[in-house]
Amino acid sequence: MDPELIKDCVHCGFCLPTCPTYVLWGEEMDSPRGRIQLMDQHVQGVPVTDVMAGHLDACLGCMACVTACPSGVQYDRLIEQARAVVEEEHVRTPQERAIRGMVFALFPYRRRLRAMRLPMALSRRMRPFLDRVNPSLGAMAELAPPPATPVRLPPLVRARGPRRATVGLLTGCVQGEFFPQVNAATVRVLALEGCDVVIPPRQGCCGALSLHSGRDAEARKFAKRTIAAFERARVGTVVVNAAGCGSSMKDYAEVLKDEPGWAKRAAALRVRDLSEFLVELGPAAERHPLPVSVAYHDACHLAHAQGVRSQPRELLAAIPGLDLREIAESAICCGSAGTYNLFQPEAARELGDRKAERVLATGAELLVSANPGCTMQIAAAARRMQIAAGSRRAGKGEIRVAHTAEVLDASLRGRPPGSLGQVAGSGR
Known about the structure:
By secondary structure, the chain is an alpha/beta fold. It contains 24 helices and 10 strands. Helix 23 links the parallel strand 8 (366-369) and strand 9 (400-403). The termini are far apart. The mean pLDDT is 92. Its cofactor is [4Fe-4S] cluster. InterPro entries: 4Fe4S_Fe-S-bd, 4Fe4S_Fe_S_CS, Cys_rich_dom, Glc_ox_4Fe-4S, Helical_ferredxn.
């Protein structure tokens, strides 16, 4: 952990009301400045204790504190460094090691994830039993979306009309396997807006899950493979439709800074979130009316880590007939945070329920998110709320969930609002 970065914190407290775990528990050591104090203690020679590791593990890495900090503290760098130290020095329980080993042996690998889609979805009914075995297993069962129809994307999709740009598309691991329709919608939107879309084979995981969990060597391996895949495709701009992946890829040069050659190659890769790229490109295709009310959810790694807030709203607001509604406490994380809802399921459920309440309070027909983890997390919370209220059969409080790309795709193709998303409370 970098002592100079630690010194930047003046303990002003502006981060406190934005930190999800401090909001939940009100504990100083579960706030950003409290965790920075723990990091400073370690730099001064205090070993990583179980208590210290517990407070650092409890951080979601949502980066809301980075947005709120008036002193420019690079907490994003600090927490990544701290997590790497915890992974190296802290001895976890056998059960923790088993769960973490299973998650990182499964989720970054598309073929393994594909084989587990149906079993994970079917295991939802076994959640009470799995909770008793291990809460992380129960969380995995609860979060799993219904099996999606596979989508095979060609290596190149040509622009519809005059070509305005050529871009590569990151298909992702979780996005590609659990939400393949989002990738398909993304390709259609880009093509309709005049882009040749290159979809390199053998992309694999971008390394986001590993990077945000302190698994440095693994993150570097995935980063190098992703960079090489897009270099072979000869595209200078890579469009990403998953917030966590975009954040990770924009950080590749920092991740690989100890390897100057790779850092230079990483810096040459221009990474843009889908909404960011489309706003920069400007509209060309006609938007058809889409009469639907939408609650837009700010994914933390899009709003805080990448600073992309206005662009998705600008794209949605430009659709005729669409009613865009804001969600209260939009800066507070939904509790997904990559693997957080698997490793810290109790805290994640509290935050998920809090977010779902705020979403349903908007009265919107459709929840729009730019991250697959957020979509699964809020959908699971909505299911819990409906089951608890006994309203599932009546259909009360239902809200459909979709990605920004799907909404744009529906408008550009003149599709009806009913074609969008799945009902969060029922899995339909």
